[in-house]
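Chapter review. Work through the record for Sugar transferases involved in lipopolysaccharide synthesis before attempting the end-of-chapter questions.
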Amino acid sequence: MVSDAHDHPERYMSSAQLETWRREQKLDDDPRITRVGRILRRTSLDELPQFLNVLSGDLSVIGPRPVTLQETYEYGDAREEVLSCKPGITGWWAVTDRNNSTWQSGQRQARELFYARHQSLGLDARVFVKTFKAMRRGK
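Structure tokens for Sugar transferases involved in lipopolysaccharide synthesis:
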């Protein structure tokens, strides 16, 4: 990303992009991402440093994606249920819908809640395999 991307997103985004970013914390074709950053994101190599968080015990490899405190309220009554799972580098939402599911549509919450309610070794194995398929496709 450009150096002041997080502190001053309004310098790089239109008002519509800024509104989407504030709601979802992501954008398709984010204008703040450099060419190298696009390659890193497309191949998911930008996720590799998170393995340090796995080693320290803050993250698991598979689980609901980490979210901000503000975003936890998007889960409504199911907030505590999702928060009971350790967040992961990859998860059901990331390998099924990823950028096609939004907080606004409720699909992201539904995918993360599905994982929290059905977590098992079998589901984790499916997520693991689908993660590598998504990386290979550049999604």
